[in-house]
Amino acid sequence: MPLPTLEFSAICLRNALQLLPDESVPTTATSSSSKLTEESESNTLMDGNTLTSVPPGNPIKSSEISVLRCSILASSAYVALCIGDVLMALHYAQTLLAQPKVSAVHRFLGHLYAGEAMVLMDDIANAIKELNPDQISDLFFSNSVSDKEEKDKSHSNGAEESNSKDHSNFKGWFPNSMPVARMIMQYNLTAAYAVRGELDKASESMRQLNASAKTAGTEIPIQALMLAMYIQMQLGHADFAKKVIKLRCPQYR
User: Fold this and answer.
1) Which of 76, 116, 182, 207 has a Cα at 20 to 30 A from 132?
2) Separation of alpha carbons 11 and 59, rounded Å
């Protein structure tokens, strides 16, 4: 019996991609296969979507196929990174970013995973481009409408009610705010600069990370503090590292 390992999950995700129907050739669920009632068929036509048969599960709307494909690609990139398959991780991340209907959340993950894969491949120059925080403009996620429509909806009357419905599965996601998302990208960008040996740029990037943390109203994670101490010690600023240790580690005062 297969064990719930990352290697097995990679196989499952590959199967999911192969089984996913092509969006360009939608398959309308027939009455014999899906046993739809006349009422549900008419609702489908009014909604402007066709139903695609995905046995053994329930039929899904054609507009949901792209979201499912993006989710599978994002998960595949993450799993590939975890098992050390860097080439496939980069492939999945770039394929995700090339999707015509990729959401802002999936775009964020695509840049993050592609950048990490490039760092591991020692392609630091391109990794720095991928990890630019300015590429992250929002974190909207929707399974049926575009990001622009989602933002318009959030600014219209009754936005709170619609957002609570459309984003009910988003509350548990991390990051769930733009400042925190930019912090994550900034941290990875700082690490890329440090790996490349551009310590001055890494120090400036860390300063921007600290500013983002203040904007987000959160503390800098311990990983970022350790990176900051490493950068400053490499620059010959041992006093800075001692100061951070005294502030963050009371037991060593």
Assistant:
1) 76
2) 23
